[in-house]
Write a structure and sequence with these properties.
This protein is mainly beta. The chain has 2 helices and 12 strands; from the N terminus they run ββββαββββαββββ. It has one domain: Alpha-Beta Complex (Sulfite Oxidase, Chain A, domain 2), CATH 3.90.420.10. It is globular and about 45 Å long. The N and C termini lie far apart (36 Å).
């Protein structure tokens, strides 16, 4: 049971935590398109841009200096597996509002990752309390195959929305489907509604 200073994703409070069509796994399967990028954290930066008053870029040391949170969540992959009881550590998505002034016309967050990969989220989904840019999983640094140095974690949606190797957040007025969304995946991806494919 997580301690009182941990943010619990609401889905962990459900009586039945396994969504329809999912099966429980103890492991953490590695799934992604293409190879694992080799990222030097000294050269990594997070760019916050788009509909903001002033664009901002953070180095890895600046990112780590931001207030950190811990989030307890479940993971649901569109391929049919679910992994319960994950403890993430990192920077809450809500903290980005303190770093840049997001303009009133912004409605979506386009998450940019290495290799030109993107995924799209409404600001309502992106700024939920349990969404974070994670650097740790269950007490260890996230491994390269799982998104080192920084991956997004969006606990309430299928796990492809939790982009690995994040390098930028773009705030936009218009929705812009990302890599998997343009390859047949659902635009939102709610596992409890089985929003797997478009």
């Amino acid at each position: 049971m997580p301690s009182s200073d941990v943010i619990r994703s609401p889905d962990t409070e459900r009586a039945n935590r396994i969504p329809p069509g999912q099966s429980l796994t103890e492991g953490w399967p590695v799934l992604h398109y293409g190879g694992v990028p080799k990222i030097d954290p000294v050269e990594w930066s997070l760019r916050l841009f788009g509909l903001v008053e002033k664009e901002r870029s953070l180095s890895f040391s600046e990112f780590l200096a931001l207030p950190q949170v811990r989030v307890f969540s479940d993971v649901h992959c569109v391929t049919g597996w679910s992994r319960l009881d994950n403890l993430w550590e990192g920077v809450q998505a809500l903290a980005l509002k303190d770093l840049v002034k997001i303009l009133p016309g912004a409605r979506f967050a386009i998450v940019h990752a290495c290799g030109g990969f993107t995924t799209n989220l409404s600001l309502e989904d992106f700024f939920q309390e349990d969404v974070l840019l994670a650097v740790m999983h269950n007490g260890r640094s996230i491994s390269p195959e799982h998104g080192y140095p920084v991956r997004l974690v969006v606990p309430r949606l299928y796990f492809w929305k939790s982009a690995k190797w994040v390098v930028g957040i773009e705030f936009t007025a218009e929705d812009r489907p990302g890599f998997w969304e343009t390859h047949g995946y659902h635009n939102r991806g709610d596992p409890w509604m089985e929003e797997r494919y478009s």
